Prior knowledge:
single chain; alpha/beta; Rossmann fold; DNA polymerase, domain 1; 2 domains; 6-stranded parallel β-sheet; two-stranded antiparallel sheet; 11 helices; 8 strands; 45% helix; 10% strand; globular
Amino acid sequence: MLFDLDGTIVDTVELITASFRHATRTVLGKTLPDAEIMRYVGQPLMAQMRQLSEEHAQELCDVYREHNHRVHDELIRGYDGVEEMLTALHRQGRRLGLVTSKSAKPTAMAFRSLDLEHHFDVVITADDTTRHKPAPEPLLLCLERLARLGSPDDPAHAIYVGDSPFDIQAGHAAGMATAAVTWGIFSRAALEAAQPTYVLERPGDVVRVCVEGVVDVPAGESELPSGRRPADDTAGRA
């Protein structure tokens, strides 16, 4: 089982939004709509900034990072239920990997603030590959390293859980099932447009789908998209 970090395992929505607002105001001299500055979140920071301004991308990165690191511990939050979800998955014998577009330093900062790193058998950051999400290389590298610990190396036996369309695209490209979670940065509509295997609303739903094999989560608890089913018995194999 592979997980994204921001917006999936840790709540950095306010931290990321505030850092983008600060960087674009400082460097570009204007306030951009949140929808515009957040639409590329899920890719490495430089890729995001190039899409906002090719000319000022490096300066945007520098200003973003300075502000982000300064307010990091104040604004990062945990999600209710995530610790319990990860603990339950480990108790069921699942190998867990983390694949993030963050570089190693801010990933380490997140884990210092929220003690979750011990749940993951393998951590892949943007420093580990030359190609990044939505390309499949980071996910495949994570599978390769998990295989050294005894996990299957076949992507058909894996699932990637994330809150971004880029996560879903990367999972598709890697040949694995995908679960889009709605508690992160992107809207349900944006996630559904990427055609994930599952759309889940609570951390507990990850356990229900991937361990208990539940496909339909009852209305009122958390609904999967109407009519959506896994292509095969991924839930029982993930």
